[in-house]
Amino acid sequence: MATLADIGVSALINILTSFAFLLAFALLRIQPINDRVYFPKWYISGGRSSPRGTRNFVGKFVNLNFKTYLTFLNWMPQALRMSESEIITHAGLDSAAFLRIYTLGIKIFVPVTVVALLILIPVNVSSGTLFFLRKELVVSNIDKLSISNVPPKSTRFFVHIGLEYLFTAWICFLLYKEYDNVASMRLAFFASQRRRVEQFTVVVRNIPHISGHSISETVDSFFQTNHPNHYIGHQGVYNANKFAKLVRRRERLQNWLDYYQLKFDRHPDKKRPTVNTGFLGLLGRKVDAIEYYKQVIKDLDTLMISERQRVIKDSKSVLPVAFLSFDSRWGASVCAQTQQSKNPTLWLTDWAPEPRDVYWRNLAIPFVSLTIRKFVITALVFALIFFYMIPIAFVQSLANLEGLERVAPFLRTVIELKFIKSFLQGFLPGLALKIFLYILPTVLMIMSKIEGYIALSTLERKTASKYYYFMLVNVFLGSIITGTAFEQLHAFLHQSATQIPRTIGVSIPMKATFFMTYIMVDGWAGIAGEILRLKPLVIYHLKNMFLVKTDRDRGKAMDPGSVDFPETIPSLQLYFLLGIVYAVVTPLLLPFIVVFFAFAYLVYRHQIINVYNQQYESAAAFWPHVHSRIIASLIISQLLLLGLLSTKKAAKSTPLLVILPALTYVFHVYCRSRFEPAFRKYPLEEAMSKDLLEKSTEPDLNIKAYLADAYLHPIFRSFEVEEEELVEVRVDKHETRAASPPLMSEHSSPSASHHHHHHHIEEPSPPHYNDYPTSPPSYYYHEPSHLHYGYHYQVEP
Amino acid sequence: MATLADIGVSALINILTSFAFLLAFALLRIQPINDRVYFPKWYISGGRSSPRGTRNFVGKFVNLNFKTYLTFLNWMPQALRMSESEIITHAGLDSAAFLRIYTLGIKIFVPVTVVALLILIPVNVSSGTLFFLRKELVVSNIDKLSISNVPPKSTRFFVHIGLEYLFTAWICFLLYKEYDNVASMRLAFFASQRRRVEQFTVVVRNIPHISGHSISETVDSFFQTNHPNHYIGHQGVYNANKFAKLVRRRERLQNWLDYYQLKFDRHPDKKRPTVNTGFLGLLGRKVDAIEYYKQVIKDLDTLMISERQRVIKDSKSVLPVAFLSFDSRWGASVCAQTQQSKNPTLWLTDWAPEPRDVYWRNLAIPFVSLTIRKFVITALVFALIFFYMIPIAFVQSLANLEGLERVAPFLRTVIELKFIKSFLQGFLPGLALKIFLYILPTVLMIMSKIEGYIALSTLERKTASKYYYFMLVNVFLGSIITGTAFEQLHAFLHQSATQIPRTIGVSIPMKATFFMTYIMVDGWAGIAGEILRLKPLVIYHLKNMFLVKTDRDRGKAMDPGSVDFPETIPSLQLYFLLGIVYAVVTPLLLPFIVVFFAFAYLVYRHQIINVYNQQYESAAAFWPHVHSRIIASLIISQLLLLGLLSTKKAAKSTPLLVILPALTYVFHVYCRSRFEPAFRKYPLEEAMSKDLLEKSTEPDLNIKAYLADAYLHPIFRSFEVEEEELVEVRVDKHETRAASPPLMSEHSSPSASHHHHHHHIEEPSPPHYNDYPTSPPSYYYHEPSHLHYGYHYQVEP
Fold it and tell me: What residue ranges carry the coiled-coil annotation (chains A, B) (predicted)?
């Protein structure tokens, strides 16, 4: 048990660490050489093309203007200067709504902190049972300020219960206002936006196979019959996952080629670089690297061409999925919200995600397997949450010093050094766990992908929710009740429904100091590390050294990243949970939460303005999750307080608390029915008014041409990036596309020809992408390594 | 504990009772005087207008054809003769689907019974632990045939687990097939039906109030904007609940008038009947009854006219609810399935129930209160299920002999008789409980009405679901674990999640004999009582004696009743639960279940063909509930078996069972996504093909005229029944409707005038009701006493 002094020391250390990070950041960011690491967003949005500052040789790399060093903390006021509406235009609604989570945290916890500290500390301190108990129990000063200090059967518990009611009411009030705000921001965002292709597009899955008809014919005849006034055509989807693999391989090879080419160009006097052709470049024949990679890439290109032709010609590679185009938002809205077919598992329509947001690979998953996939993944996530310690313990039992010496005997002398030995003995067992926690979000993302969601935004939301459950069980409950999650599960199964909150409730006050330290390490120092961007900084400079030839390459080497929703939102929700649970129990924890929210708000505001570049825009689709998790935190806190008080024998006051969870739940149900449809559906009123407005302002808009290749499958775009090399491919493609029928339905042929034309004159960017002013399109399979393709369109001309 | 012989005696008694009922029924039904009690459906459908049989005076009342007495059991083969499709035409899809629940029961339990008896009885008997334990435990022969007889740690439990898997697979297979069948029957029913008004009608609730505009204007402008191609008009809804009360009062008075009139007419020589005007006809001045009632009714008519005018003129009595008419099924389908407004609590659209099915009174409930109402009722139902014993125990403590003597001293001498005293002492305490159980369905129906559902079919489904929970907790669990439901609840809250199934599982085999008796009393004899129709028989003859003047009155006196879904479906589900739970535990219970299903199937088939007259048609909307409750029974049975086996220390075999509930649940989720939309939504494909078909066969159908007064509020119909008396009212009504704007939107004025016309030439039945060939419309407030109004249209001409 830590005392107040211990916590003070810990706080000091963490504050110093954070300050060190901030100082490093402040110094690094004003160096021109790092400009693309700390301000990539401005390069992407076109606000900057080269570092500001002096133009002499040294000045290109190091900041020589010493005045700027004096104002090195001025990023903080700068971050606050941009208004919310400017942020929406600059970075999108997702980012703006993400920042609102932090302001919500501040709004909730500042008054709660003040009230709790002012009222509860005197109430708890003056009761003073623990002063007399000191010798029997190991208690800290902090416990004297918490509810533990109140003697059993005290009437003072009425104060705690009253405050729980008050805080619940205050939080519900803010949640309601905020849900309302975000919902109207979402609708205003849709209304203010210019035309967006996804407003006219509906994705249909599980198209039935009618023998003697192609998928395309089936789709056209079905929707021409059932949506005769609004349906104008569709775009087919191909199973090009194998082709995508080839594209990824080609890119890897191209990187190596660039690397060797650059190496040779810089030192043309040295002998040409060589490479081994065998396993991992270690074995096999030694050959000239540049020639070798050129040849391999050429072979791969031939393979890709034939694979692409196979995909286009083979009717089996046409998936039973299509993007339907409508001539009005109203028509698309109707089609997305209604059931089409007698058999409710066929012709499943839903809103199309925006083109950048589509996760193409999952469109190939047949619908029947989705239920099974969901079930299997749910079982796996459950196992992962409750049994993850088993494989790790196994690995830990292997990864000891004896094992290491046996595998690598040459290390024996090093290992036997006393200093290193003790370090390793302390370090190795934890390593497996560290690695596991590091790759956990990736693992959860892969699980979500297996579940078969077709939009990146949905994938991230589902990953976030899995991660949240992991944190809730393993960080929150796992810290309160010692023992592995599996042991907890076992205990819970063998305890009664009334005993569980009691078991947890009792231990809560004792863990306050642990969570204070947790908030400082994970929250304060972690956030300060986020702004430093150490990893992207290193990677950028490495790439700059080995791969960058032109300014365009330098653009490719930038990695702006984006808000990591699957990781950040669950951590945030954990802080809400901690704050709400401890508000009444140990109010001393609250200031730590407030500092976290304020500091993180500043940092993320800065990052969103200057660094991050969102890959997609879901228009704050994650808000219902944020809302309902905070409600869940409220109910958890009420149940735990109930459990805690029932051990305090406060029989007079405790029953007062029973009704509160029910009321909170009713509030939740009301909010859900009031606001959630705004996040799931697109009201017809809205669609119609936009349609009418557009008809009056742009009476001769050709909507077919506008939609022509919005959801064109990436397979048709892949080659256009490498213009110089692939003229023959393009000719070939032209023929192929002329031979195979155009993907749009027959009455869209004018637009299809438009699209051909448009593509072959090599406009750098399809015109409709001007509708996404804030960020470049990334047409490609959404693998980080491919994001660079997207830039070409923007950066090149 | 009952032995096999005890059960045999009990079975004999119940079989004899049932036979006595059947015999009574067989004799009563062939008496012409009872013809309208046992064959009302044929009178309503027009198949009969007077009893068959000889035409002499005695023959009108008693069957003199003695040959028919010899074939008195021929109703059984007769009941089986009608095919399912004929039943659908004759009695509607609801009735046909209801019968399918029984065939499903037979299909499930006949093979299960055979397999379980053949395999399990030898397995259980030959283990024979209980033979040695006889002196320690009180066991019966039946226990020797059950799982209790298998010694702990036996490997024989693999047989039980294997059978549980086999039965689950078999039941899921049948459930899937049956869901598929019923879903396609539903769609075929919609497709085969001629035009139905509800296919073109959507109900919209929570219309916002826009100042300066009437509700009607707001509705028209909103839907003309947002559904421009299909919306053709709407019908407003009035808050006429007060008026409806007057109508009910008038009817009561009319009944009295008829009674006295008839009394006087039969004996015109006696002096005219008199009545007291005061409290309950006991106090006050004595006046001539006929004159008095005529005067009161006349006064009431004046009051009703002014109240009706107030309702029509007062804009406040127009409710924010309307029935929207569309020119096509497609348009209505789109409007019903989409979200209309930015604010998801406004402009809530949904399918309109069919006109007979609307529960008008609840249309007046404002939407905001619905969440609260649902919450309050849920809490009340919970309390009712778990604490209903408290008020009953209180009443019981009051209702003893001393209390009775104090209230009614004049009974003292009677009560003090020994025989009567002991009878009352045994009877009185149970009386409160009996009364409670008798009125329970009514109470639950009132609760559902308070929840605010606007269709009778929904109300009945919700009542059924409440009743099911009551039965599950108080009949099933309450019989297995002794003690009140409240004590159980307390025990469950203080037991761990793994302990609960164990506690219940252990007691299950011991309660088999109790449930066998229950099935015989409630199932066998109860069903035999159902076919006898004792209550309607008595009431019909009483009415016939005192009120009936004309044949038309005799038609009114008939009470065909209908399948009592809120009570029958939950009982059925209880039998499924019992059968599934005991299939593996005590297979000897299964034959009782099979007999119940077979017998009940025969009885209900007979009743549906000859007696019941459904008030509405929901097209088997209850099937998803039937399906999911059987799935719930499966999961309950698996968990209880798991609990039972875990007390048997069958550690080797028990883990095999853990996966089964999860698999069952996955099956349920799949079925829900596969079939449930067919019961909630109307696919556009279906709507469009019906529209196109209709357009080609009836190109000049006037759909506006067709829909004109389909959902006319009952307030406009109320007077037309009493043609002769109310000419002046009709004139007044004409003026009123000309003065207040017609309810249809302006571009429906031709149809509105058609509608006026149509009403004032007093056609006996609106033409579109011919679309319901099987049953007469009951336009009125759905109170049983008003159903007679409906007949007028059919019976009169």
Answer: none
